[in-house]
Amino acid sequence: MGVFPIKNIILGDGTPRICVPIIGRSEEEILMQSEEIAKEADRLRESGVREAPVVDLIEFRADYYDNVCNQTMLTDLLKQLREQHKDRLILFTFRSEEEGGELRHDRAGSMLDDICSWAMVSGYIDLLDVEFLSGNYRVVRTATKAKDLGVGVVMSYHNFEETPHNPTLENILWDMEQLGGDILKIAVTPKTQFDVDRIMEMIGELKKGTLEQPVSRPFVLISMTDQGQRSRTEGAKQGSAFTFGTVGGQSAAGQIGLEALAKALSE
Q: Active-site residue among 39, 85, 145, 185?
């Protein structure tokens, strides 16, 4: 398993990192959530719940933001988020409707490339989520631009119907790496406990490099819903580069509250 150093953090170094999403619609709501996250992280750190920083990454879910199509407003909002989280990584995510996003109007969808570009050139984000299924040309073009601007690429694949067979997941991971992913993220839906077991086993194989098509990038593997919660705790301990906790609302089924997650990762 490889590592990806960015800013003051090395993703994939064996330290389970915590990412907290922000899913507000207005600037006021987003900044309020952001402040709540910072305060809760400070409280948990002071309580000694974890030796490592409690929150390492902030995910700004831009698909929720009502004014995402306004470059000036988006850039100003990112600047304020950076000021609130100087020592944390900021992951910019514009999730499509097909992969569980909150896109609500055609204009935002047609402006996706522009919106991601605005975020990258702002200088206020560290990581950009790029959906693996958005088309190879778009993926490579976006990943190349991100690297030119010093922004890391979280290549993502989500499946809300099932957990595909292992060879399919292995092929996706391998393709993600070839297309320029710095961190390879897969989130799938279990139908049975066996599906969760398969994800946990794959995490172990990825860490050891024993897959038939091994990859050399850090990875995040998640089995969603409450049934797959142990992939968010044990999976992070066993090799996933980061996992998602919540302060307030969830951005995906099965996410765990920040305090409970921090305690679980410290056990």
A: 185
105 in catalytic set: no
For this structure, is 185 an active site residue? yes
Give the span between the Cα atoms of 162 and 79, in whole angstroms: 38
Residue in the structure block whose two tokens are 């190349």: 144
What does the pLDDT look like over 163-172, one tens digit per residue? Answer: 999 999 999 9
What b/e readout covers 133-172, taking b as 16+ CB neighbours within 10 angstroms?
ebeeeebeebbebbeeeebbbbbbbbbeeebbeeeebbeb
With a CB cutoff of 8 Å and minimum separation 6, the contacts of 246 are: 20, 21, 255, 256, 257, 258
- CB contact at 8 A, 236 and 202: no
pLDDT digits (tens, 9 = 90+) for 91-107: 999 988 777 777 655 55
In angstroms, how far is CA 174 from the centroid of its own chain? 18
Q: Which of 7, 86, 105, 158 is catalytic?
A: 158
Helix (H) or strand (E) holding 197: helix 193-208
| Contact criterion met (CB below 8 Å) for 68 and 108 | yes
pTM score above 0.90: yes
Q: What gap in Å lies between CA 26 and CA 77, rounded to an integer? A: 10
62-87 pLDDT per residue, tens: 999 999 999 999 999 999 999 999 99
> How many helices and strands in the chain, by DSSP H and E?
9, 11
Q: What are phi and psi of 4, to 5 degrees?
A: -135, 100
Nearby residues of 152 by Cβ (< 8 Å), 6 or more positions away: 4, 6, 11, 126, 127, 128, 146, 182, 183
Task: Measure the CA–CA gap between 6 and 20, rounded to whole angstroms.
Answer: 18
As a whole number of angstroms, the distance between CA 65 and CA 105 comes to 12
Cβ atoms 184, 205 nearer than 8 A: no
